[in-house]
Design brief:
This protein is an all-alpha fold. The protein is built from 6 helices and no strands.
């Protein structure tokens, strides 16, 4: 990843998103920041290809929570469905797969 000329803005947004995460989880700001920076959403924030930094900290934190929710629900997929989905999918693709599984289960 190349260095962005917007890294200061990205770093400030990461800190603010970390505060939102901390507040919602009842943890310290540093722990919230650490959780965020070790997530795929944190990686996406610092990647100019996603332009995630164009959004505010609440939106970015919501993306983080969506990522973590998708990781949780990924666990309910069968082994075969996980193999078909693969490991490096976005949380949107995981959520789509989960919706498909829920629709399948509702027909049983």
């Amino acid at each position: 990843m190349k260095t962005s000329e917007n890294e200061y803005t990205m770093a400030a947004l990461a800190a603010l998103a970390g505060k939102v995460i901390a507040k919602k989880n009842g943890i310290s700001d540093i722990q919230g920041f650490d959780l965020f920076m070790n997530s795929k959403t944190g990686e996406m924030l610092f990647d100019d290809n996603y332009n995630l930094w164009h959004n505010g900290p609440d939106y970015i934190a919501a993306e983080y929570f969506m990522e973590k929710s998708a990781e949780y629900w990924f666990l309910i997929l069968s082994a075969q469905e996980r193999v078909l989905l693969g490991e490096n999918k976005t949380h949107y693709q995981i959520i789509y797969a989960i919706i498909a599984v829920c629709m399948r289960l509702s027909r049983l």
